[in-house]
Specification:
The protein is 29% helix and 23% strand. The protein is of the alpha/beta class. It has three domains: 10-161 and 289-333, FAD/NAD(P)-binding domain (3-Layer(bba) Sandwich), CATH 3.50.50.60; 163-286, FAD/NAD(P)-binding domain (3-Layer(bba) Sandwich); 353-468, Enolase-like, domain 1 (2-Layer Sandwich), CATH 3.30.390. The strands form five sheets. Strands 1, 2, 3, 4, 5, 6 and 16 form a seven-stranded mixed β-sheet that branches. The longest helix has 25 residues, at 95-119. The radius of gyration is 24 Å and the shape is globular.
Amino acid sequence: PYSRTGKYDYDLVVIGGGSGGLSCSKEAAQLGQKVAVLDYVEPSVKGTKWGLGGTCVNVGCIPKKLMHQAALLGTAVKDAKKYGWQISGPVSHDWATMAEAIQNHVRSLNWGHRVQLQDKKVKYLNIKGSLLDEHTVKGLTKAGKETILTAKNIVIATGGRPKYPTNIPGAMEHGITSDDIFWLKKSPGKTLVVGASYVALECAGFLTGIGLDTTVMVRSIALRGFDQQIAGLVTDYMETYGTKFAWKCAPKRVDKLSSGALQVTWTDTQTGSEHKDTYDSVLWAVGRAPETKALGLDKVGMQLNNETGKIVLGADESTSVPNIYAFGDIGEVGIINRCHTDIIRYSNLNIVPTTVFTPLEYGCVGLSEEEAEKRHGKDGIEVYHAFYKPLEFTVAERDASQCYIKVVCERAGDQRILGLHFTGPNAGEVTQGFAMGFQCGATYSHLLQTVGIHPTCAEEVVKINITKRSGLDATVTGC
């Protein structure tokens, strides 16, 4: 194939067909570049594999939110009776029905991505790419057939995969990760989730919500990197909701019993005592590792961070090799919709809003209270907060003691908002709206001048007026 450069097969070859790689390859093609995108899914340890679209589409955001929705519907059915819906007989959940419907939706997205690439004239190759030199990519098919592609520029967007602990006998043989949970044909049954990241808590939350006996094993703290007061509210709610927590515990080994059950042995790190219990499934959610091993990066002498294994990136996603770029989870910058690179480039990464889809959802944008205090000092920040009761919880007689809003501001001057935190229904939708204010330099007085939409949970944010400093009770009474 002849390229505009004349010298190479392609102007751009992208390795990785996830959020970053797809977005980049389509943008480049629209700018008139000749582009190929390589995507190949190495099956998980358990043999799970999937199609084009990367983690988000196949084993991340999309199936996660749909399973979270399944769990929310279970709660809604319980609420429905109080609202007068007459639901006869016991309500139970069928894993296979849910899984099949979600998996079919994911497959439709895989197909959609292929069609989009075709429409935009991007060549899609289902082969595993690695570098031979800075302009040459070797591709291997599943059958081991080799293809060589040359490119003027190369982008690496291979993301990451879940880690297994290396020092726990039986962990890999008998455990699963988030790469597998969404593609199970039958219910995981009684499950131990090891880890306390957002992935761990979201999975434990929806498993509890669809009626499974679920335990979360936490070594140290939950939701590291998030506001810790809010993390506590999220896990308190989950405990009330039925998720069991084994705090300050570390797994030692996993053994498969003759019955097929998995016996987990763990240590209580505070007392040093040892415990055992049996589970049907053990889900490891102990972090993710970048997919840098099999890329041949050493062949081009690419600079990696020794600790994380990630590619060291310059300001414009450039690597240490001039014509090779990388972005997303493979590099030292998180994944953001690439259309927003300019926003990211000219500001810090503190204004990326995010939501944790735990049974009580937690949305935030900006700094945690701890981080704001570190940067501005305890006397340099003003924290406004409120405990509120969502209207939908009232008739349903649901406990709202963890529904909370916190707005962290600079104390001086205009009281610029540094961080906003919200737990409650539809946290993602609420946070997305307020996130725009951060782009505009929102202040506390802007918030007060905003008219609330009644009766919503989000309006409680604009009504916020009690400071932590005042020590006053922050419980909001109804309308």
